[in-house]
Design goal:
Length: 468
């Protein structure tokens, strides 16, 4: 590829000398003698570098015309490298030109080797930048495609099809959204889905588990702090709001924060500004807020556990994510998706589900929703002895919630004392938790992880079922 150089100088002898030199080195040269002609050529063609004099007929000493040309060239093509030519007595002007956007300068009369080296260096840098920008654009596009594929949501059921249509429409707005639904329904996944289809998708998506932030650390975690702001502040820290600037912040388990924390959060949402702890500098907030909870916020407002004014700030619109048992048509497609994902993760054959296993999956009530389905499929992948996952591999037959309880009948055969069909949802959930507690000898971290719960959510269930 022949590199094209744009030359501008009102001295025709200088132009002729430059043309002879550069053409002998294999460059294509376009030369002009006025600023207007220079800008016209820059608009018409793409150049690898521009070599321009700073002084013309209207002003032969100050370089003001050249400075204006640099600014106008940058408006036409901000990536075009500009090399300016100056006299020995005009070094200060050359420095000003570089501050204005010139890439380098050469002095008149020039040395051919120095001039050629300068131009080739700028051409190489420009080519590398162009290629890098193209690769970056392609990489961004690929990342966007992969991100959308990652957050593709199974929607075979009518309820989920309607939900996705609504989500895509709402994503284009900037309104605050509150996601409600049971644990494990995928509220965080839906939050990311909204972000990926929003106008802010190229900016950060910051997820915060509000239930895991203690009251004493709330301001530091959310707003950041300055070095020395308090005893343990050995260095400055950026808060979650600042990290999410221009993007989306997802406040998960929003109902788990205390009243004092709610007041601090409300002030930020109302005024759209905050300060780091220990700083008097106010920062403006520009982000989209999505929050989620599995709690009944209306009841919490009545009981005084949640501020109504904060609730109104969070729920410009509220979307309820249906439980898995309410979207039966999605169970098998989701199970197959998880099977494929886990198989690829562990580099083992994907396999299929037997007809009875598929029927069992559809019949189960899924108290743990999508999270539980994922865990069961992952386990079944390793329990399976062939290419086909059977009912026994799913682990339903173990009835973990019953602690594998069975009784011996009069005929000496083992008979289960209860079944999923007879137990209430709370009985099933309590039984599963008890079984996992025994399996992990009461270790709360391992037990919570095996259930797909955060520690705060796990402890809430212990209190609910009096298992503390």
């Amino acid at each position: 590829m022949i590199e094209k150089i744009l030359i501008a100088d009102d001295d025709t002898s200088v132009v002729a000398a430059l043309q002879m030199l550069l053409k002998s080195q294999g460059f294509e040269v376009v030369s002009v003698t006025t600023p207007d002609a220079l800008l016209e050529q820059a608009k018409k063609q793409q150049f690898s570098v521009a070599l321009i004099d700073l002084n013309y007929q209207n002003d032969t000493t100050s370089g003001h015309e050249g400075m204006q040309m640099i600014a106008e060239l940058k408006q036409i093509d901000e990536k075009l490298p500009i090399v300016v030519m100056t006299g020995y007595s005009s070094v200060d002007i050359a420095v000003d030109a570089m501050k204005a956007g010139a890439a380098d300068f050469v002095q008149k009369p020039w040395g051919n080797e120095r001039l050629l080296h300068t131009l080739r260096t700028q051409i190489q840098l420009h080519s590398a930048h162009v290629i890098g920008s193209k690769l970056a654009s392609e990489n961004t596009l690929l990342k966007d495609q992969l991100s959308l594929a990652k957050h593709a949501i199974v929607a075979e059921s009518e309820s989920m099809k309607a939900m996705l249509l609504q989500l895509k429409k709402l994503a284009k707005s900037d309104m605050s959204i509150l996601l409600t639904g049971e644990n494990g329904t995928g509220k965080s996944m839906f939050a990311e889905y909204i972000h990926q289809y929003s106008m802010r998708h190229k900016q950060a998506f910051i997820a915060v588990n509000m239930g895991a932030i203690t009251e004493s650390l709330f301001e530091s975690e959310m707003f950041g702090h300055m070095k020395g702001a308090f005893t343990d502040a050995k260095e400055a820290r950026i808060g979650r709001f600042e990290l999410a600037q221009a993007g989306t912040i997802f406040l998960d388990e929003i109902a788990n924060i205390g009243i004092s924390q709610q007041a601090k959060l409300l002030r930020v949402l109302e005024e759209r500004q905050f300060e780091r702890v220990g700083s008097s500098k106010t920062q403006q907030l520009d982000l989209r807020i999505i929050s989620a909870t599995n709690a009944n916020v209306d009841k919490m407002i009545v009981s005084g556990d949640f501020r109504q004014d904060l609730y109104y700030r969070l729920n410009t619109i509220t979307l309820h994510i249906p439980a898995l048992r309410e979207r039966k048509a999605d169970i098998i497609p989701l199970a197959q998706q998880f099977l494929t994902q886990h198989a690829h993760k562990y580099r083992i054959p994907v396999g299929t589900f037997s007809a009875k296993a598929a029927a069992s999956l559809e019949a189960y009530d899924w108290p743990g929703n999508i999270r539980e389905l994922s865990h069961i499929i992952e386990r079944a992948l390793f329990l399976c002895t062939g290419d086909c996952i059977e009912v026994k591999d799913l682990g339903f037959g173990l009835n973990e919630h019953q602690d594998q309880a069975s009784t011996t009948g009069a005929d000496g055969n083992s008979a289960q004392t209860s079944s999923f069909e007879q137990d209430s949802l709370d009985d099933i959930e309590k039984g599963i938790i008890v079984a996992r507690m025994k399996k992990f000898t009461g270790n709360p971290i391992k037990t919570a992880e095996s259930l797909g719960l955060s520690r705060s959510a796990y402890y809430r269930r212990l209190e609910k079922y009096n298992l503390t």
